[in-house]
Design a protein that fits this description.
216 residues; 5-stranded antiparallel beta sheet
């Protein structure tokens, strides 16, 4: 009898611990079936193809509607179809977007564009941060990008290598390009989205997931 009680206690503890680990883990916010929880604005579209998000045309963005996000990790797993494919992950969008340029000028874009210079390439905050590394995988292979929003700080890891560590309010880099996003501090909390840049830039996303930061 005593052994049975110990076994029951062990099983209950094990299951509770497993559920706790699952609850604290990554939450998939793209279900692989449809666009539940997402809305597109601007030109072009995102479509579902074999369980993946595929960008078409542009410029537009697909944004996550249920809530603003902050103090969180965002993970996207994507692959490119050409060397010059252009896309991005929007963060810190201050309000629900009704057109594609507000997120550019009032939020931040974590760039996906391998040929860009060090302020406009994959893994940087477009025009605000300088690339710390360029750990891209070849066209057609899957890349994993993890974006950490920790208060005013944004960190980006691409395929396990840090590419950006930026704090809101840092002075703008010199010689910003014409057409770069407006200067200014972005909010700690904001909506997120995925960019469809143009008809020649087809990108696939097979995973979009979020995980709260520990202690928040």
């Amino acid at each position: 009898m005593f052994r049975r009680v110990l076994l029951v206690i062990f099983l209950v503890t094990f299951v509770a611990g497993a559920n706790s680990i699952m609850a604290a883990g990554w939450k998939q916010i793209f279900n692989g079936k449809d666009l539940t929880g997402w809305q597109h604005v601007g030109d072009g579209d995102f479509v579902i193809e074999q369980g993946m998000l595929k960008s078409e045309g542009g410029m537009g963005l697909l944004w996550y509607t249920p809530e603003k996000l902050g103090n969180i990790k965002i993970r996207v797993v994507y692959k490119l179809t050409k060397k010059d494919t252009n896309s991005g992950v929007y963060v810190r969008i201050p309000e629900r977007p009704s057109e594609p340029w507000m997120p550019v000028n009032k939020g931040n874009e974590v760039q996906i564009y391998n040929p860009g210079d060090d302020y406009h390439c994959t893994g940087v905050i477009y025009s605000f941060s300088k690339a710390l590394a360029r750990p891209y995988k070849p066209v057609g292979e899957w890349n994993t990008m993890e974006i950490t929003l920790d208060g005013p700080r944004t960190m980006v890891y691409l395929n396990g290598v840090k590419t950006t560590d930026y704090v809101q309010g840092t002075p703008d880099p010199p010689n910003r390009h014409d057409g770069d996003p407006a200067s200014g501090v972005r909010p700690n909390l904001g909506y997120i989205g995925l960019q469809n840049h143009n008809a020649d830039s087809v990108v696939y996303f097979r995973e979009v997931a979020i995980e709260p930061l520990a202690g928040h």
